[in-house]
Amino acid sequence: MLTGKLLVMAAAMFGFGFLLVPIYDVFCEITGLNGKTGNTAQVVAEAPNLDRLITVEFTGTVNQGGPWEFRPAEARMQVHPGKLYATTFFARNTGDSQVAGQAVPSVTPGQAAAYFRKTECFCFTRQDFAGGEAKDMPLRFMLDPDLPAHVETVTLSYTMFATTTVAAADGAP
Question: Top-level CATH class of 32-169?
């Protein structure tokens, strides 16, 4: 009797833990919490708002001392909502072996994430680097003209994670 109850309780706890990630993602999508930016832009021909300037700041960090040198090409830029802009991020594998990396974005303030549209981003795919290889990786974006009026500065932060070595990621021994 007690064993059965404990097994049911353990299964329920496992199920709850398994469901936490999708529940959190839905919660963040609904509330805009944590600056999630899963949106890619549906670039629609609309006139940019040339009367408004927003400062977009860029930051790049490396997760737990990974084998990377990683930084934005420019720290900030002034943009007009509705206009498409391009910049790059520089990344270099500081190690001798091949590695694969993935950049994870975050936007602050969180409510601005829904208005940040990326048409091209290195964060969409895994980036493979040979030992010592360096790349300038593209980012094309725009801010939606409906961005709330009180938002004057938006920060786009990327954290670079070493996902695995390239050989292991490609299924080679």
Answer: mainly beta
